[in-house]
Amino acid sequence: MQDMIKMIVVLVVLGSVSGGLLAATKDWTSPKIEYQQLTFVKGPAIKSILDGASNDPIVDRFKITHDGQDASFFVGIFNGEPSAVAFEGTGKGFGGDIGLMMGVNLADDSIIGVGVTTHSETPGIGSKAKSDPSFTNQFKGMKMNAVEPVDAMSGATVTSDGVNAGVTAAGEMYQRLKPQILDKLQAFK
Known about the structure:
Blueprint: H1 2-49, E1 61-66, E2 69-78, E3 81-92, E4 97-105, E5 110-118, H2 128-131, H3 133-136, H4 157-185
Antiparallel strand pairs: 1-2, 2-3, 3-4, 4-5
């Protein structure tokens, strides 16, 4: 009986130490992982959408908790004013979730750009949503409260529908959070 108790105590100690080490490693690597994602995955889309901003939108960002999750907003300062934000949305594509970044002009709530950041779509077909700007450029100028489906990519209807759904869902989130977004932007003036 004593041997069994010793074994249980040893297992509990080993499990606790291992769990603590894993938690510490996660805490230590999380900022580095976030930085890598911002720099290499989301960053190119953010910088393309907020092209011409006088600031670095990757650095000038804030988070708002929405439906139990943090939503990141990247600020674009034009003519000395924080007049645009970019933020992430998702849609369901043929191969899984499609991550996209969308930029909005705060003065008139119009879309200034959309860029696909992540996907698992078929190479050469659905993957064109990320590599072919003519598809995502169709969203430019649309009002956030009146996003309409755009022309689908040939052979990639499900991917196109996923991007459309992602833009629509992101637009709805933007409409709900706009007062909070405007409030957070006061810190960038």
